[in-house]
Amino acid sequence: MTAAEWIAKARGVVPSSDSANRLLGLLGRTSVSNDDIVKIIRCDGVLTAKVLQVCNSPLMGLRQRVASVDQALMAIGHREVFRLVLAISYSAAMAEPIPGFAMAAKEFLRQSLATAAAAEVVMESGLWKGGETPMAFTAGLLQDIGELVIGGALTAEMVGSMRTRVESGGISRIEAEREMLGTDHAEVGSNLLTSWNVPEEIVEAVANHHQPVVSPVTRLSVVTHLADCLAHLAGGAPGWGSYAIRVSTPVVESMGIDSERLDALVIATRTSIERMERFTAVL
Amino acid sequence: MPAPKTWVIAPPKKTLVVGVADMTASNDPGAELVTYSLGSCLGIAIYDPVKKAGGLLHVMLPSSSIDPDKAVRSPFMFVDTGVPRLFRAVNGMGGESRRFVVKVAGGAKMMDAKDIFSIGHRNDLKLKEILDGAGYTVHVRDVGGLTYRTMRMSMANGQVTIQSPGTPPYTL
């Protein structure tokens, strides 16, 4: 089955969000005002209600009650509202269990938010200066979205065969997907995002997060690849064979990562994940 | 009223969850300690079968020297600062070090040609160094591999069970 056929099969399993897509459309602009964000959120009643619910939850620790999207922006800021809207938009689909990868309910959502948090850590570390942090956050959040599509459709025989290839054959999980299915979650995910008109930089980062592009220029997939590894090392890696990831040597070399730098990144990622878990608890 | 000898409905088991970079010790035989998401992290369980006292530690990184300030705020994040505190906590509940049964799980490893990302292996080496230095041995271990684990310890008898996604639990 091709990536396009997997996506056709998955329609409705992973619904796109108009509000999230419009918000992602703002990422390519040179300047974004609060009004631009408010207009998008206000048009979506369910999204507005959810944003206010999360802002007013005790976990957010705000002193004053938030009664409108404008107030939410004032209280928690541009960047946090952006994160929140994306997390809310995809949380329903991402919170579902994925039987093909043995992930329980909410595990995929937690892992996606952890990867998004890790992508921000990579950006803030200064290891890569090619793009904007919200773009990296979004790419981290969505990089494994193809697993939702594939993992929900795998039969028990397919899972058994893939596990044997990974556990005894010495190949990575994505390599086993390619061998068994003729495609993989990165290709399926990037095709899905293309069909949603998500910015090209994010599609690249999702498509190549297991084979990041470092030449002739490094691209955002370098960040998503490293973020994927960091999120695993900082305490979240659901599903079988989740450590069967091939770390990209060109990324390690081009970013000058040694064990000390890696450990520091893991600590920063852990801190960032703990902040992000406020969202997971409320969503 | 005394507790019945045979329960019609068993009393609920007290589950104490040990988070990432966290530790819990107990001497309550009705409790169970559990830690989730052991990937490259190590879960270290110790138990004194006479006092029925034990503890479970979930460490993330080998050495606190990378961030001493973090080690002050979060000592259970590191093997070198977490393990001595685990032993002291169980000693504080009457556990005697010479009777401790030590069980270890976790330390999953990514496929890294340069071996920089093998934090699980570095955690394991640091643990060995600390235990060797203090004269302890690990009685049983399930370390390495490609998947993450959930580790549980019954405080009634120190039995440790391990479960990985998609596979049934087994006794370590």
Walkthrough of the structure:
The complex is a heterodimer of chains A (283) and B (172). In chain A, 65% of the residues lie in helices and 0% in strands. Chain A has 15 helices and no strands. Chain A is globular. Helices cover 20% and strands 31% of the residues of chain B. Chain B has 3 helices and 10 strands; from the N terminus they run E-E-E-E-E-H-H-E-H-E-E-E-E. The longest helix of chain B is centred in the C-terminal third of the chain and has 16 residues. Chain B has 172 residues and is of the alpha+beta class. Chain B has one domain: 2-Layer Sandwich (60s Ribosomal Protein L30, Chain: A). Chains A and B meet through helix 9, helix 13 and helix 15 of A and loops of B.
Question: What descriptive keywords fit this protein?
Answer:
heterodimer, A: 283 residues, mainly alpha, Hypothetical protein af1432, B: alpha+beta, 60s Ribosomal Protein L30, Chain: A, five-stranded mixed sheet, 3 helices, 20% helix, 31% strand
Outline the secondary-structure elements.
The complex is a heterodimer of chains A (283) and B (172).
Chain A: H1 3-10, H2 18-25, H3 34-42, H4 45-55, H5 69-94, H6 107-125, H7 133-142, H8 145-151, H9 156-169, H10 173-181, H11 185-195, H12 200-207, H13 221-233, H14 249-254, H15 259-282
Helix pairs in contact in A: 1-11, 3-5, 4-5, 5-6, 5-7, 6-7, 6-13, 6-15, 7-12, 8-11, 9-10, 11-12, 12-13
Chain B: E1 14-18, E2 22-26, E3 31-38, E4 42-48, E5 53-59, H1 68-73, H2 79-91, E6 101-106, H3 119-134, E7 140-143, E8 149-154, E9 160-163, E10 170-171
Parallel strand pairs in B: 1-3, 6-7
Antiparallel strand pairs in B: 2-5, 3-8, 4-5, 4-6, 8-9, 9-10
